[in-house]
Amino acid sequence: MKQKAFGVIQSYYKHSPVYGGVFYACFFSMHTRIDIVLCGQQSEEEFLLVVDAIYDRLCQIEKLGNCYDADSELAQLNQFAAIRPQPVSHELYNMLAFCVDCNARTNGHFDITVHSTDYTPDLISKVQLSPKERTLFFQHPGININLSGFLKGYALESIRDLLRSYEVKDALVNMGNSSVLALGKHPLIDGWRVGFGQNVVSQNQEQEILLKDECLTISGNNSFERKHIIIPNSGKLVEGKWAVAVVTKSGAVGEVLSTALFAADARQWKSIKEEFSPRLVLKLV
Q1: Would you state the pLDDT for residue 4?
Q2: Three-state SS for 237?
Q3: Up-side HSE of residue 279: CA atoms within 13 Å toward CB?
C-alpha cells in the first residue's frame, strides 16, 4: 500500500518463472475506482512506477477538464468565456475541438453543452474555438461545458500512451466498470475476458467478451432511479434501467459513441454506428 497526496494505491505482485510478473493495483480517482493489472518481465518496483505515473496523469486530466472543480481550467473557462475570449491550454483545446466535432458526427446526440442554462440543441454552435489564437469564446450567456461523458475515455487513451512509454505490452485498466482498456493479453489466454456483472445481454449473445488492444465503454442507467444522461433533442433524461456497451479501438471514441447511442432512439442507431464503425455494440438490460 502506498500513500499518495490525495489517496492510497493498494497493490499486489506475484512472479512466475513461466509467465513473468503479474501486478495488480487499485486506487480512487476521477470519482471512481481504478483497477489495473500489468503483466510482463518488469519488477514490482518498476510496475509501481507505472501505476504512480497513471495516478498522476489522471489527477492532471481532472485539473484540466473536471467542470465540478472550481479550480480546474474548464471551470474557469465556463466562468469567463462568455465575457471575452479565453486562452486555452493545448491539451484542453484539443479535447474541446474533438467533442464539438463529435456533436456533428453523432447528429447532435453527444453534446457537451447539454447541462447549460436555457439549453437548446443548437447552443453548441455558440461555442467559438479559434485555432490560431487557441481561445474559447461563448457567443451566448449561460453556456456550461461538461466533459463528464468524455473524460474517462480520454483518460484511457492517455493511459495507453503511458503504458507504451514504459514498455508495458499486456495490461487491463478498468475505470469504474464502465470504461475498460485491454492491451495485449492475459498470461493464460490471447486477450482479456471481460463480463458485464449484473447486466445481461440478449440471449443470443455471450455474457462476456474477449478484448485485445481495444476499449469497452458502457453508458446507461444502473437503476430505474438513477437517471443522468440527457437526450439533447428533448432535454429530458433517458428513462429505464438499461445501458449501451461498445467495443472500439479508442476509448475517447467509445465514450462518445456509447453516450450518443444511449441518448438516441433506435431509428438513429444505424447512422451513428456507421460513422464510428465499432467492432461491437450491445444493449444491456
Answers
A1: 55
A2: strand
A3: 14
Residue 269 parent element (H or E): helix 266-276
Give the confidence band of 7 by pLDDT, cuts at 50, 70, 90. low
Res. 89 pLDDT band, cuts 50 70 90: very high
Hey, what amino acid is at 41? Q
Concatenate the DSSP letters of all residues of 13-47 into one string. EEEETTTEEEEEEEEEETTEEEEEEEEES--HHHH
C-alpha cell at 216: 469497452
pLDDT higher than 60, residue 60: yes
The gap between the terminal CA atoms of the chain, to the nearest Å, is 37
CA-to-CA separations, 278 to 42, 195, 284, in angstroms, rounded:
33, 18, 16
Q: Which helix (H) or strand (E) holds 268?
A: helix 266-276
Q: pLDDT at position 110, please? A: 97
- List of residues 6+ apart from 265 with CB closer than 8 A: none
